[in-house]
Amino acid sequence: MTDICIVGGGASGMAAAICAKEENPGRAVLLLEKKNQLGRKIAATGNGRCNLSNQACAGVSETLDFFAGLGVLTRADETGRIYPYTEEAAAVRDALEQKMEALGVEVMTSAEVCRVEKNETFSIELGNRILQARKLLIACGGKAGAAFGSTGDGFRFAKSFGHKVNKPVPVLTAVEVKEDMRKLSGIRAKAAVRLCHRGEPIFSEQGEVQFTATGISGICVFNLSRFLLLPAGVSFADGFDEYQIEIDFFPAYDTLVPLLETRSAQGFTDERLLQCLVRKPIADMIWRSAKGDIIKTAALLKAFPLSPCGVKGWDFAQVTKGGVPLCEVDAETMESKLVKDLYFAGEVLDYDGPCGGFNLQHAWTTGMRAGKEMAK
Ligand SMILES: Cc1cc2nc3c(=O)[nH]c(=O)nc-3n(C[C@H](O)[C@H](O)[C@H](O)COP(=O)(O)OP(=O)(O)OC[C@H]3O[C@@H](n4cnc5c(N)ncnc54)[C@H](O)[C@@H]3O)c2cc1C
């Protein structure tokens, strides 16, 4: 029997364990992690640099205080993304682990919880043994990045307690398109991506677009993927037909017609019209589709159309959209509104943010709140 059991040793679970012990050192805190090491995902975040928050996030100062308490010095880049000073994600994971050890959190790794239920107290089943806890935090993450341990168990546990789980969808991931992209594979272009639904623009962001053999990738494309959602009941095969993606290779220009006309008058004709404006494979593709027409060429440079047919799946996605609805949890305490002494934190909840530190910030904030509350 323990006072507080935390299922999941990722960002939210570790933040919760630390805050619970700091709030009330007398409470016994047990953290159970399926993998043989805590925080495997944290070590992979931000391409190994751990973009742990963003100056634009609510709750950022609390997070920075928390990390200062762990001895993690941070700094923000020019866009407001916050990283550890050394940009070493594994060191953030280590600092969390060391703090838990110093505070006396009991940790079990290679401890996969397979079932949880509540009678008088919570029963937590781990293969061949059953543990008991007075308070339980589900911090198992979502389904994104399954190699790091999050395979959707938290959704199963939430449902077993009567919670709803909004359909989990992989987001912050590359987008696949119907067009043959093989000739563009490997090219990068500073551009803007625009997502249109039934002809109406619903999302636009500038950044570096990376072309792959099957579609497009890059941070702006990852952010776009959050809005590329299948209507309920529609099959994956033709579900994205209502969407179109447009790539604007010249977001700073209203139109390319005067520029192209000037170049044409200067003698840059045929394929040379687009030389040094876009990379050659893109120029060839645009030139062929526009059949040499300057007006059409200018239009394609501003809105190069692609037809999305899917997103890269769970193994590639960084985040899960969907999960336990936020309205079923008390936002101040993270306690379930359905089951007393049951708490949720992190990606198991139906929250997803854009790239830039918003998702880890959500994990820290909800973990800290749950930890403090459970220890009271
Ligand atoms: C490659 C990658 C890069 C990313 N980079 C960034 C970034 O730079 N900035 C940012 O803000 N966000 C980033 N994210 C997203 C961010 O990492 C997650 O949103 C965040 O880690 C979620 O925290 P969590 O605690 O809810 O879940 P997780 O960190 O996924 O942790 C859940 C833990 O629970 C364990 N677990 C699951 N089921 C069980 C079970 N049955 N029993 C016991 N343990 C279990 C898992 O093994 C895992 O350790 C990235 C994600 C990925 C995949």
Q: Number of helix segments?
A: 10
Q: Number of domains in the coordinates? A: 2
The class by helix and strand makeup works out as: alpha+beta
Q: What are the distinct ligands in this entry?
A: flavin-adenine dinucleotide
Low-confidence stretches: none
Mean pLDDT: 96
- Rg from alpha-carbon coordinates: 24 Å
Sheet bearing the most strands, described?
7 strands, mixed
CATH class of the largest domain: Alpha Beta
Shape: elongated
Percent strand: 25-35%
Please tally the β strands and state the result: 19
The CATH superfamily of the largest domain is: FAD/NAD(P)-binding domain
**Residues in helix, %:** 25-40%
Q: What's the end-to-end separation, in Å?
A: 18 Å
CATH second-level architecture of the largest domain: 3-Layer(bba) Sandwich
SSE order in H/E notation? EHEHEHEEHEEEEHEEEEEHEHHHEEEEH
CATH fold name of the largest domain, please? Answer: FAD/NAD(P)-binding domain
